[in-house]
Design brief:
single chain, 414 residues, alpha+beta, Beta-Lactamase, Hypothetical protein af1432, 2 domains, 6-stranded antiparallel sheet, 6 strands, 58% helix, rod-shaped, disordered N terminus
């Protein structure tokens, strides 16, 4: 009954109650439906509807409509050029005061009195189009809701069942309600976006963890392949020269000790590369004829030319293995001398990779102290003296001293 719809409303209390609901409800659709239900139940209008912007479709649609003359939701779909939308979205200074809200009565007054004379012709034409839009939507008043100058939606209100005009208190109530609802809707959208973003980040985190596990698995497989290749190549060297086979494993151990004493970063593949270089620096000897490789005593000039070819031969053996490029460079440089007098390229000082400089020192040390078929090995102290004598010419002085320190730190065997 109309008499039930026109009872007195405490608007301040209503705003407090609605504000509590806006805070409690997290989903935008529930917030908006609550508003239309409240207006229909408490305020005695022919209908109440809410136009809401759909960013994914760049249009405004009737989200909800309640009342005896409610608007079918499926019929209303407006783009940015619809007169009512364009009016409230405008940035024109001339009509700024008229964009807080619009009513059919307000428009009639503007167009029929002296105010219209001060407006541009295009503004009056636009107001007439807005007036027709309100008639089409059965709305007596339209109140926009903004968030940071963006038009979020419009509250459309039909006539009062009492046929009375809206008071300034009622209009202020609706303006405050729409303002709070626009903020609540946008906050809810941000909250939902944050939830979706967090879910997306969780999925990406899981994918990253899976990828890292896969990388770790491949790294372990790569290391295993590394080891198998090194072992196979070492066995080839062993088949040619049993001394070299025992020699390279001791050189590897001493070389890693020296690198650690120098404070080199051996994380990641760095230690693998160093170990491979220490193990495979003489792999090219598999291509040296036995009469040169196993000759007791010194080599003549021609034999030395042949022996020196083991460097290039080693590089060629490793060349097809793309993962061994850094190792091949160590092999390529392990006979370069610190003063530039070495071979095959005559590199000097820091131009020689540090790994190759380490190989050079530990390889020479082991050769001095090892017993061969043609001579006895010499004492460790004698080897130290020889390394220091050649420091700065054949060897990097820093590597020599680091090697000697590392050797002296080794636990003595009984």
């Amino acid at each position: 009954m109309p008499s039930q719809k026109t009872r007195s409303v405490d608007y301040h209390e209503a705003l407090r109650d609605i504000a509590k609901s806006l805070v409690r409800l997290k989903r935008p659709e529930r917030l908006l439906k609550m508003i239309t239900r409240y207006i229909d139940r408490e305020l005695g209008l022919t209908h109440a509807a809410i136009l809401v912007y759909e960013p994914e479709r760049s249009r405004y649609t009737i989200f909800d409509s309640k009342g005896i003359r409610k608007i079918p939701r499926s019929l209303i779909k407006f783009d940015q050029d619809y007169p009512l939308i364009r009016w409230f979205s405008s940035k024109d200074k001339e009509t700024e005061s008229l964009r807080q809200y619009l009513s059919k009565q307000k428009i009639r007054e503007i167009l029929s009195n002296g105010v219209a004379a001060k407006l541009k012709p295009e503004t009056k034409a636009e107001l007439s189009r807005v007036q027709r839009s309100l008639n089409d939507l059965r709305a007596d008043i339209a109140i926009p809701g903004f968030f940071k100058d963006s038009l979020i939606g419009i509250l459309l209100l039909g006539e009062k069942l009492s046929r009375r005009l809206f008071t300034r208190t009622e209009i202020h109530f609706f303006e405050t309600l729409v303002h709070d609802a626009a903020i609540a809707v946008k906050t809810s959208e941000y909250h939902q976006h944050l939830i979706e973003r967090n879910l997306e980040l969780e999925v990406r985190k899981k994918q990253l963890e899976e990828r890292l596990h896969e990388i770790e698995r491949l790294r372990k497989k790569e290391q295993s392949t590394y080891y198998e290749i090194m072992k196979s190549l070492a066995q080839e060297v062993h088949a040619k020269d049993p001394y070299t086979f025992g020699h390279i494993h001791q050189v590897e151990r001493l070389g890693v000790m020296t690198a650690e004493e120098l404070g080199l970063d051996l994380s990641g593949k760095r230690k693998d590369v160093l170990s491979a270089g220490l193990l495979l620096h003489d792999v090219g000897k598999v291509g040296i004829p036995d009469n040169v490789l196993k000759k007791p005593g010194g080599l003549d000039r021609e034999e030395w030319k042949i022996m020196r070819q083991h460097v290039e031969k080693g590089v060629k053996i490793l060349e097809p293995l793309s993962d061994f490029k850094e190792v091949a460079e160590i092999v390529w440089c392990h006979h370069e001398n610190y003063d530039g007098s070495g071979y095959p390229r005559g590199l000097k000082g820091e131009a020689i990779p540090i790994e190759a400089r380490i190989v050079s020192v530990v390889d020479a040390f082991h050769a001095i102290v090892s017993t061969r078929c043609y001579r006895e090995g010499r004492p460790v102290e004698v080897a130290f003296q020889e390394l220091r004598r050649c420091a700065g010419t054949q060897f990097d002085p820093k590597v020599v001293e680091a090697f000697i320190r590392a050797m002296k730190k080794r636990p003595k065997r009984g």
